[in-house]
Design brief:
The protein is mainly beta. It is 11% helix and 36% strand.
Length: 171
């Protein structure tokens, strides 16, 4: 039987965050909630050591794919953390955030993640990080905000027809 181990990350910065809805861009049949979390190497070392221990406990000295790598942009360690189910969320004070109150979480948000290291043996051996909870320490919300540009394009509202498209299109 596979030996799992719990983890809790130190604070890290979300690089890619699919936490409000699952990422189904490349796999519509098996969407997952995901976050790639950047953590400074010194802070990440205990977490990397724990993942290596789980790998050694489950696979011995066999080659094993790990859920982290150095981020080529920053030199920090990038952890790939996944779940088939939406994790629970708390704010910086540990207060549970109801699903309907969840803000739109974007890359750049600072967070900590809890879950478990889970070994797998499909298409080779590896360790994955399955998340169960996220603490949002510093939120970056996904917003589109621009200052108005004088003399630029201005969209007009069109009456929508039954399929949600503008009513005056020409095909």
């Amino acid at each position: 039987m596979a030996n799992k181990a719990p983890f809790q990350t130190p604070k890290g910065t979300a690089k890619y965050a699919w936490l409000n809805r699952p990422d189904d861009v490349f796999n519509k049949e098996n969407p997952k909630y995901t976050v790639d979390l950047r953590i400074a190497e010194a802070d990440a070392k205990p977490l990397m050591d724990e993942a290596k221990k789980v790998a050694n406990d489950n696979f011995g000295s066999a080659k094993c794919k790990m859920p982290f790598a150095a981020d080529s942009e920053t030199g920090e360690i990038l952890f790939k953390i996944r779940s088939r189910y939406q994790p629970k969320f708390v704010d910086s004070q540990g207060t549970l955030i109801a699903p309907e109150q969840l803000p739109q979480i974007s890359g750049g948000s600072v967070m900590r993640v809890k879950g478990s290291f889970s070994p797998y043996s499909v298409q080779g051996n590896g360790i994955t990080m399955m998340m169960t909870a996220v603490q949002i320490v510093d939120l970056v919300e996904a917003k589109i905000e621009f200052e108005p540009e004088e003399g630029g394009f201005v969209a007009t509202q069109k009456a929508a027809n039954g399929n949600g498209q503008g009513a005056d299109y020409d095909f």
